[in-house]
């Protein structure tokens, strides 16, 4: 029963983990907007989510010495980070475009909140399905 619940929520779990990692990356870009020679980084969320969900069944298995141990899913941790190409070069070598970073940060934040709401709705639906009829 737990396996079925965990597999039903695994996609959303991976999406949230990738959203969180992207949020941290974008926040790092914003924080280093004035750092000379800092190169802004990001990753393609859709491609990374597709790659992470393709490995759902083939995740690295750790040795479990006790029946209660949970498996670690490391597929969302290794994303293909890319450097952004600046629209305009700066004299200090920094490639952070604050307007783009703020837009991407806000977009990712809204999508993160939407993913949480979707996950909450899914859990509520599963809980209702498990309740006996009244």
Automatic annotation (TrEMBL):
<dbReference type="GO" id="GO:0071978">
    <property type="term" value="P:bacterial-type flagellum-dependent swarming motility"/>
</dbReference>
<keyword id="KW-0282">Flagellum</keyword>
<protein>
    <recommendedName>
        <fullName>Flagellar basal body rod protein FlgB</fullName>
    </recommendedName>
</protein>
<comment type="function">
    <text>Structural component of flagellum, the bacterial motility apparatus. Part of the rod structure of flagellar basal body.</text>
</comment>
<feature type="domain" description="Flagellar basal body rod protein N-terminal">
    <location>
        <begin position="9"/>
        <end position="39"/>
    </location>
</feature>
<comment type="similarity">
    <text>Belongs to the flagella basal body rod proteins family.</text>
</comment>
<dbReference type="GO" id="GO:0030694">
    <property type="term" value="C:bacterial-type flagellum basal body, rod"/>
</dbReference>
<dbReference type="Pfam" id="PF00460">
    <property type="entry name" value="Flg_bb_rod"/>
</dbReference>
<keyword id="KW-0966">Cell projection</keyword>
<dbReference type="InterPro" id="IPR006300">
    <property type="entry name" value="FlgB"/>
</dbReference>
<keyword id="KW-0969">Cilium</keyword>
<keyword id="KW-0975">Bacterial flagellum</keyword>
<comment type="subunit">
    <text>The basal body constitutes a major portion of the flagellar organelle and consists of a number of rings mounted on a central rod.</text>
</comment>
<dbReference type="InterPro" id="IPR001444">
    <property type="entry name" value="Flag_bb_rod_N"/>
</dbReference>
């Amino acid at each position: 029963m737990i396996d079925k619940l965990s597999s039903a929520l695994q996609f959303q779990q991976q999406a949230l983990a990738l959203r969180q990692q992207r949020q941290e990356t974008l926040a790092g870009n914003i924080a280093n907007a004035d750092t000379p020679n800092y190169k802004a980084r990001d990753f393609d969320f859709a491609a990374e989510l597709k790659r992470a969900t393709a490995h759902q069944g083939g995740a690295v298995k750790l040795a479990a010495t006790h029946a209660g141990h949970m498996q670690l899913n490391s597929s969302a941790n290794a994303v293909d980070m890319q450097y952004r190409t600046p629209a305009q070069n700066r004299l200090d070598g920094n490639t952070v475009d604050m307007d783009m970073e703020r837009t991407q940060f806000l977009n990712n934040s809204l999508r993160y909140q939407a993913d949480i709401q979707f996950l909450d709705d899914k859990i509520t639906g599963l809980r209702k399905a498990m309740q006996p009829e009244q």
